[in-house]
Write a structure and sequence with these properties.
single chain; alpha+beta; 21 strands
């Protein structure tokens, strides 16, 4: 068929006749089309299936895609090279070719608008690596090699050497690129764009919108650019002093939904989950159901997304002695199955806040572009093509919760997590006490959370010498919090005047710009990983009396005297020496040895935890170098075994019950009916710890244990809301740093490349995904 009409003017008769011939051709050659085809206009670019009359209008008004000369998506067969191969190999070739063509179509028209590479991609997808060898094409070879490079963290230099070696090993005339630079040029069209936004080095403003043309910060007057030789010129240009890297979330969602498998997974929480009254997914929590009931238009389409936002500081230089702090902001998708929610493949890097200093309370400045996109996704939505159903729909999205350690929790919430009112849930009702000798704030009074008729409320001597008549403080709703913070005026930036303020709220969080934010019961989640680690460190340090980590000492005993409790434990002077009477948790040297020997002899499967034999010092009878996951394994499994037989029965049972509590809330399936029992159990455990351990033991992390069950009931399972997968992902981001002069730029560029390779992996046969690792068992 003559296709020269594609280049004619749209108003000519030849062009109109050619359009009619094309539509007739598609209608005859596409089976079961139901009158809908991929639209080949310059805007749709064969991405959307539309009715015939709409396609006719698009092509006549906007124009036909000039590079689309082989109508492969409208029924035209591909000319395969006539090579003498077996039927099995021919089937593999056809399957591979179909997948590559589908991949090129699903890349999206945005990439082709930025670079005229459609023809090159299609040519590379057809061209065999060398003559008479059709199993691998130039495009498939490069993509598979990049997949291996990304999975194993190869450097660009080593990859270039590999390409040179492979090219030399292959027959003459092969078209394999010989440099990483040449291979990356083939991959570039698959990558998605990002934005570099200049920022004030004092975290005052972002130079965007109406501030885009300024050279100086309008608040602190500091130059937008790096200074040379301590000289400053207001109009001089140069490298920006600080940069925010923004990776638009909408583009990544379009890429995600263009893949049929991923588009199908986005509705798993409705179509694929088990509904048996147990907590298995955030959809089983109260907050998800509340959103469904309050916003039925949002919940009617199961493809609408609920995000979790996580951020934390990291040193991109690894173990080098540097105080540089980079802050990636990550998004996780809760529509996915629980075994994929937190996997590397589906964690989206949305922001990279450059260092060297952490943003702290000024992080709202950097979150502005992301929050604007989230607000747009909630109110207006985005037109999206569903690769699974083959139709278009309006996608909406919302922020479900945030996942952070406790200091970042305070920065995002705008709450002061230090001092007397440090608990962000109890707030004004936080029960605190200032130790005179230990010089720290402690948080006791957990008997308030018991039922009104519980016998512990009447005990005096075992606690603080008084009966407990107060009730637990009421948790403020999001609307009540908003009323407290809506009038707080904050000037962001490190150069602002710092005055003393008694207000526990530091600012109105930028997340309150989202219309639904004040409706949520839990907006910021307590990180169980850090709570468990801090509690474990306190218990181990106190039991083994590790210097600097024990909560029992001379000052702790003097505070007991000051508070008028447990007088028998008061320090006693014997000449120049001070004697501390043993407590119920004090271990003898032989008991410490027994404790350490039991942990030293532990053998665990590969990848289960660290080798505890290396963590135990039998010389000093203490544990050294415990990581977060080691503390997790101790609290979940090993501590109840290690203390068996070396502590009084009541103390041993209390610590064992605490370990069982952490084990229960960290389970992957939780019976909803047992949550009330767990909530009562943890209050009793904390009250018993008050009876046995010194007051200095009860820092804010110990107090936060009492609120964990509430968040499980509202937001769902703990393992989808803690920092373990986020910390692991940040380790991967550190590995992306190959240019130590510009670490954040290096991270973003390599992330874009891996993102493109991961997308292409789904269209290649016999290739493993990068971000969904196999278990040790497999």
């Amino acid at each position: 068929m003559d296709r020269s009409w594609i280049n004619f003017i749209h108003t000519t008769n030849e062009y109109e006749n050619g359009v009619e011939q094309f539509l007739e051709f598609a209608n005859m050659n596409v089976p079961d089309n139901n009158g809908r085809f991929y639209c080949p206009c310059v805007n749709c670019l064969n991405e959307r299936k539309l009715p015939t009359n709409v396609i006719r209008e698009h092509v006549l008004c906007d124009g036909f895609l000039k590079s689309y000369t082989k109508w492969i998506w409208h029924g035209e067969l591909i000319d395969m090279p006539s090579v003498d191969v077996s039927e099995e190999e021919e089937e593999v070739d056809l399957e591979m070719g179909d997948q590559l063509e589908e991949m090129i179509r699903d890349v999206g028209h945005d990439s082709f608008q930025r670079a005229n590479v459609y023809e090159n991609l299609f040519t590379d997808a057809e061209k065999p690596l060398y003559a008479e060898f059709t199993k691998y094409t130039r495009l498939s070879t490069v993509l598979k090699l990049f997949n291996v490079k990304a999975r194993n963290g190869w450097t660009d230099k080593s990859f270039t050497e590999l390409l040179e070696l492979l090219s030399d090993m292959l027959p003459e005339g092969n078209i394999l690129p010989t440099r990483n630079y040449d291979a990356k040029k083939i991959l570039c069209p698959m990558g998605m764009k990002y934005q570099k936004i200049n920022a004030c080095p004092n975290d005052c403003v972002l130079y965007r919108k109406e501030l885009a043309m300024l050279h100086q910060c309008p608040r602190c007057g500091v130059s937008r650019y790096k200074q040379k030789d301590n000289e400053f010129e207001s109009n001089s240009k140069g490298p920006p002093a600080k940069v925010l890297w923004y990776l638009p979330v909408v583009l990544r969602l379009k890429r995600l939904f263009s893949n049929a498998n991923d588009a199908k997974l986005m509705r798993w929480h409705v179509d694929g989950r088990t509904t048996d009254g147990h907590l298995r997914h955030p959809v089983d929590g109260l907050q998800w159901r509340k959103i469904d009931s309050m916003f039925p238009n949002f919940s009617n389409d199961s493809r609408n997304i609920r995000f979790g936002l996580a951020t934390d500081g990291m040193n991109p230089y690894g173990n080098l002695s540097s105080k540089h702090s980079s802050w990636p902001v990550l998004l996780v998708i809760y529509n996915l199955p629980p075994w994929l929610c937190m996997k590397r493949k589906y964690v989206m890097l949305s922001l990279m806040i450059s260092g060297p200093k952490q943003p702290g309370n000024d992080i709202d400045i950097y979150l502005t572009p992301l929050v604007e996109d989230l607000k747009m996704l909630w109110e207006e939505g985005v037109d999206m093509f569903d690769g699974y159903t083959g139709d278009s729909f309006k996608l909406h999205a919302m922020l479900f919760c945030t996942i952070n350690d406790f200091p970042t929790y305070g920065n995002l919430r705008g709450y002061n997590t230090k001092g007397h009112k440090a608990c962000p849930i109890c707030e004004e009702g936080t029960c605190h006490h200032q130790l005179q000798h230990g010089r720290k704030t402690i948080y006791l009074g957990h008997r308030r959370f018991l039922s009104t008729n519980h016998p512990y409320r009447k005990l005096k001597k075992a606690f603080n010498g008084c009966q407990e008549n107060e009730l637990a403080p009421m948790v403020l709703s999001g609307s009540q919090v908003y009323e407290h913070v809506k009038d707080i005026g904050v000037v962001f930036g490190k150069m602002k005047k710092k005055g003393t303020s008694s207000n526990i709220w530091k600012k109105k969080s930028i997340f309150f710009d989202l219309p639904y934010w004040r409706v949520l019961d839990v907006r910021h989640c307590i990180d169980v990983m850090h709570v468990e680690k801090n509690v474990c460190d306190s218990i181990i340090g106190t039991l083994l009396n590790i210097q600097g980590k024990t909560k029992d000492g001379l000052n702790a005993r003097l505070d007991l005297v000051e508070m008028g409790i447990r007088e028998q434990l008061a320090p006693q002077s014997h000449g120049k020496r001070t004697y501390l009477p043993p407590t119920c948790h004090t271990l003898s040297k032989q008991e410490k040895r027994s404790f350490c020997e039991s942990l030293q002899g532990v053998k665990v499967p590969l990848g289960y935890s660290s080798n505890f034999k290396r963590l135990v010092s039998m010389k000093d009878l203490k544990l050294l170098g415990l990581k977060s996951h080691d503390c997790h394994v101790l609290m979940q499994q090993l501590l109840p075994v290690a203390i068996r037989g070396i502590l009084p029965k009541n103390v041993r049972y209390t610590l064992t019950r605490l370990c069982f509590f952490f084990n229960a809330i960290c389970s992957k399936v939780i019976n909803i009916e047992k949550l009330d029992q767990l909530e009562n159990e943890v209050v009793v455990i904390l009250c018993q710890l008050e009876m046995y351990f010194p007051p200095s033991f009860f820092d804010i992390m110990v107090h936060l244990i009492i609120h964990l069950v509430r968040e499980v009931r509202i937001c769902g399972l703990v393992f989808l809301r803690w920092m373990y997968p986020i910390e692991r992902y940040m380790k991967i981001l550190k590995g992306y740093v190959k240019n130590q002069y510009r670490p954040e730029a290096s991270i973003v560029e390599r992330y874009i490349a891996e993102e493109a390779v991961e997308f292409c992996t789904d269209y290649l046969s016999q290739v493993e995904a990068i971000g969904v690792p196999k278990s040790h068992y497999h």
